[in-house]
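Exercise 7. Given the encoded structure of a 215-residue chain, write a plausible sequence.
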């Protein structure tokens, strides 16, 4: 792998700017009834260079005021849908870590770049694999897209921590023309999307986590 030093220098300046860009949908993250962070995201019905597919661009900060951790995520998916691009930039304690992932058939290649270090690993991929993060909840939009009325078995990979989770996603009509998805297994909870497919509410009762659309 090529040296990542120039890229990391650039990201030290870019990530805070990305995290501060106004994005169209705002979320409030609570745990145990207490607000822990805020997230903003935009869902686009296209990919880079106007290719067909979808793109999620997200920025999260913990806590919402004077954050000590900021994250910026980009997830591009093809119309099938399949993973086209994943990038997660994490800034914490003045250090930046960049995580990149791309899929090719049944393989998923993940690279992690930090100051002074760079590593890569290959993981099982495929159409039933979704990339998630414990602090960027708009990524669950991809789960809603893959859910089926009968309940589709999925595998989640959390590239930042290396965690894997097996669960099912069952969809049904939601309020106001949106979609409700019930999650069962290693990930247990429910989510709602609006008529445009944007995350509106996400709840994990076992962890006391509630994500809601900001008013």
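Solution.
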């Amino acid at each position: 792998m090529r040296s990542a030093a120039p890229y990391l220098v650039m990201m030290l300046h870019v990530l805070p700017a990305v995290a501060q860009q106004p994005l169209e949908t705002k979320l409030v993250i609570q745990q145990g009834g207490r607000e822990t962070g805020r997230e903003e995201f935009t869902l686009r019905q296209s990919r880079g260079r106007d290719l067909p597919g979808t793109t999620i661009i997200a920025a999260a900060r913990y806590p919402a005021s004077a954050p000590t951790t900021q994250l910026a995520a980009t997830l591009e998916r093809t119309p099938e849908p399949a993973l086209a691009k994943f990038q997660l930039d994490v800034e914490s304690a003045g250090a930046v870590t960049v995580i990149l992932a791309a899929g090719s058939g049944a393989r998923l290649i993940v690279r992690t770049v930090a100051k002074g270090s760079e590593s890569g690993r290959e993981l099982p991929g495929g159409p039933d694999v979704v990339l998630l993060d414990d602090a960027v909840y708009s990524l669950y939009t991809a789960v809603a897209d893959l859910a089926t009325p009968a309940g589709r078995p999925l595998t989640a990979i959390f590239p930042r921590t290396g965690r894997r989770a097996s669960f099912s996603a069952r969809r049904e009509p939601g309020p106001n023309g949106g979609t409700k998805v019930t999650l069962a297994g290693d990930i247990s909870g429910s989510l709602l999307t609006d008529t445009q497919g944007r995350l509106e509410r996400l709840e994990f009762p076992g962890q006391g986590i509630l994500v809601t659309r900001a008013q």
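Remark. Residues 1-21 have pLDDT under 50 and may be disordered. Students should compare their own answers with the one above.
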